[in-house]
UniProtKB/TrEMBL annotation:
<dbReference type="InterPro" id="IPR013216">
    <property type="entry name" value="Methyltransf_11"/>
</dbReference>
<dbReference type="InterPro" id="IPR051052">
    <property type="entry name" value="Diverse_substrate_MTase"/>
</dbReference>
<comment type="similarity">
    <text>Belongs to the methyltransferase superfamily.</text>
</comment>
<feature type="domain" description="Methyltransferase type 11">
    <location>
        <begin position="52"/>
        <end position="156"/>
    </location>
</feature>
<protein>
    <recommendedName>
        <fullName>Methyltransferase type 11 domain-containing protein</fullName>
    </recommendedName>
</protein>
<dbReference type="Pfam" id="PF08241">
    <property type="entry name" value="Methyltransf_11"/>
</dbReference>
<keyword id="KW-0489">Methyltransferase</keyword>
<dbReference type="GO" id="GO:0008757">
    <property type="term" value="F:S-adenosylmethionine-dependent methyltransferase activity"/>
</dbReference>
<keyword id="KW-0808">Transferase</keyword>
<dbReference type="InterPro" id="IPR029063">
    <property type="entry name" value="SAM-dependent_MTases_sf"/>
</dbReference>
<dbReference type="GO" id="GO:0032259">
    <property type="term" value="P:methylation"/>
</dbReference>
Length: 283
């Protein structure tokens, strides 16, 4: 059976930004408070197995491993299996992985949300960062597969970073690049939430709980452009289209409606983000 068109689209275009280093350079990390909330679902000394789906270049992975090594989380994680379908992303993952995981065994495998290369009931935690929206309108097979690999009582965590539209210049930039989405199932559209109306979800998981975080990260004009260019649907544009978009983004940044400087001489200012965390438990 052939894979959905949007899955092939994501694999192809994220492979380009993953192998080039653009994705890892441009994308933000994740709030330590959110990662600690996920880790709080694991018992002390449990030596748990964690499966991360859609691991990309390991932006979430590295932050998770760092927090898992903190004294308050010692012994919670013994093994992390990163699953990523894009060859370029897996290349980026391995290029960035270092020894910061300490005693935690880390593996990086090819796979999909509905094709997870681990045994039944082997995971204490499944986490998906910045990726689950790619299931689109029908995530039933993914839900069924995630239920298969999770132990009873195990946790399923979904987490996303999103540029904060409450800041005027960020809203203006999002208007510039979101017009190129090409019907891809972006997180903001909420198509992925259709899983909650399925028997696959209701039979296997508890009702989800959501937490929300806000923060402002240092950035520059170049990094704002890179952030937009790291999106799959922007990678898919022609060079001329990207050049035009880049110039439009720079104009918005220079106008700077609502922009807050950190160091004007160095061109460093705040980039506001919201982070959404969704947690559910395997019945």
């Amino acid at each position: 059976m052939s894979e959905p068109a949007h899955t092939a689209f994501a694999k192809s275009n994220f492979s380009k930004s993953g192998s080039s280093g653009l994705y890892d350079r441009a994308r933000p990390d994740y709030p330590s408070e959110a990662i600690d909330q996920i880790l709080s679902r694991l018992a002390a000394g449990s030596n748990s197995t964690v499966v991360e789906l859609g691991a990309g270049t390991g932006l979430f992975t590295r932050g998770f491993l760092e927090r898992a090594q903190q004294p308050s989380n010692a012994g919670k994680v013994a093994r992390l299996v990163a699953v990523e379908p894009s060859e370029g992303m897996r290349q980026g993952f391995m290029n960035k992985l270092d020894q910061s995981q300490g005693t935690i065994r880390v593996e990086c495998e090819d796979g999909l949300f509905d094709q997870i290369p681990v045994e039944d009931a082997s995971a204490d935690l499944v986490v998906i960062a910045q990726a689950f929206h790619w299931v689109g309108h029908d995530g039933r097979s993914a839900v069924k597969e995630i239920a298969r690999v999770l132990k009873p009582g195990g946790t399923w965590a979904l987490i996303w970073n999103l540029e904060n539209r409450d800041v005027e210049w960020i809203a203006q930039i999002r208007e510039k690049y979101e017009r190129f989405e090409q019907d891809t199932p972006q997180y903001r559209l909420g198509y992925w939430r259709s899983i909650y109306d399925t028997t696959e979800y209701e039979s296997a998981f508890t009702l989800p709980t959501e937490s929300h975080y806000t923060r402002a990260l240092p950035t520059t004009e170049d990094l704002v452009v890179d952030r937009a260019f790291s999106k799959s649907y922007i990678t898919a544009l022609s060079d001329a289209e990207r050049d035009t978009l880049g110039n439009e983004i720079r104009e918005v940044v220079r106008k700077g409606d609502g922009k807050r400087w950190i160091d004007k001489d160095q061109g460093v200012f705040e980039y506001d983000y919201k982070t959404d965390l969704v947690l559910a438990q395997r019945k």
